[in-house]
Amino acid sequence: MKTTFLGTLGAAALLLSGCAVNTSVSDPLKLSAQSTATSVAVSITANTDEISGFDTIKLRRVAEGDKPGDLKLLAENLVMKRVAPGMARDTALFIGALQPGEYGFIELIDMSSNRMLRVSSAGLVGTFKVEAAKPVDLGRLIVTRANLGVDYGRSARAVSNVELIQRFAPEYSNLFREGVAGGWTAPRSERDQVEDFARTHPFGAECLAELSDGRAVAASRMGAVLLRSKEGQWRTLNAQRPETLECLLPVALPDTELVAVGEFGTMVRKAPGSDELLPIDPGNLPPGTLLRIGGNPQDGWYLMHAKGRDLTIFRSRQLSGGDWQAVHKAVLPTRLWSSRPVFTPWHDARAIGYALPNGRIGQVDYSTGKWSERMAPAKAKLHAYRHNHDGTESVLVAAGLLGKFPDAYFSRDLGQNWTKMAPPLKVMVSTVVPLNDGRMLVSGQVYGDRELQVSSDNGQTWAPYAKYDVLGYIEMLPSGLMLDVQSAYRGMITIRASTDSGKTWRQEYSTFDLEAMVKQLAR
After folding, report:
1. What number of other Cβ atoms are within 10 A of residue 374's Cβ?
2. For residues 148 and 492, what is the distance between their CA atoms, to the nearest angstrom?
3. Measured between alpha carbons, how far is 123 from 189 in angstroms, rounded to an integer?
4. Is 99 helix (H, G, I), strand (E, B) or coil?
5. Across 400-448, where does the E strand assignment appear?
6. What does the alpha-carbon distance between residue 156 and residue 162 come to, in Å, rounded to a whole number?
7. Per-residue model confidence as pLDDT tens digits over 255-294
8. What is the pTM of this model?
């Protein structure tokens, strides 16, 4: 089923005004002994960066329509909110209590991005039935950006929420121990290719890195690792489950050349010569999302773990089945209008750490396991922060009292000394990109055209370098390969590559699928 994200929730609310009454679904843990309502669980994974994971769903009871096989929605909107909201970025778990009857989904809502997705009971998902005293586990729904529209369907790989409930909402576990029903009124449609499309078109390319032989890799949604051959061809490797992978680390172990981590404490590895992403035993890690992985066999392994605003850096001597011990804990700041933490995580060959908007930059050194902190230049607030694979850093910080635009600084010694740059542009909107030969690039708008400018003296003087017609995120890899990741129109992802230090670029990867587009238009 294809649809599109609607605009603001305010506009959508106006469209619904007068049509239906919103009623909150009861919490099954708060039902009276006389209640006839039954527990229902469903999870949703979103394969798009346009939203921050759904936090509200709306259902309606359905009844037989005027013609055989038709259904009609009854007037009342039943609002179900997520439980354990800090457990993941792109996956949400919903648990509520519904009276016996047949139900259909009508809206999926993300309050933080102010977007909603209207769905139809006549689509691929279908309706579900609740029977008295039979808890219902609907498994996972998948929502994916698909070219100009949004598709949604059922997962064939995540058909149960028992593990999620046990780990992230254990207070509900007893409700789903016995007599659990699948609930769906019809089997999953053979036409439901939403999950397969999402797995081959994951949105995102995080933690760009290189394997020892020069192949590039990136972490993505839908349990995916993007793998680039040395010739520039990209393909997608998927773990069995659809949880988002947040970051990855090339390693040199006998049976592993790559480790990736992500939502729900997911840890997977890729063996040399294999395309499989195999699970790694997380040991005693608590529930939460793994944002970064660093370390080595000699100094131990480090994981950056988040659950809501709580961030912990763990260390273990071994990866599989590790005894993970906290070496640093923090409570992260948020913005007034969002509950999502605001910070920039990073890792390199020596340390793992993060930068905060207040200008504080901290790290754990692998060799000592000790936490240390430093401040941004001039002890100013950070507008932007970049930590590069070679340990160099560049920042945009708040200017002085009379300064209108951010000041730009660069450091080659982990922030012990900062060099203030003379910006080539009146308004700096991005940090500089260091080249492997010591020069640095910055992108910006000059006389209506976007271009790259170059400096050979730590940012004191600049000169035009090359045309650069998109606003993406450029990463310089150790081999000299440059990759540009752009979130394009309607959330689509494009990756371009340069083998001449940014002089010329070639598009190599995109989540736009022409064949799928033709099929969508035909439907």
Report:
1. 16
2. 9
3. 10
4. coil
5. 407-411, 419-420, 433-434, 440-446
6. 15
7. 999 999 999 899 999 999 999 999 999 999 998 999 999 9
8. 0.90
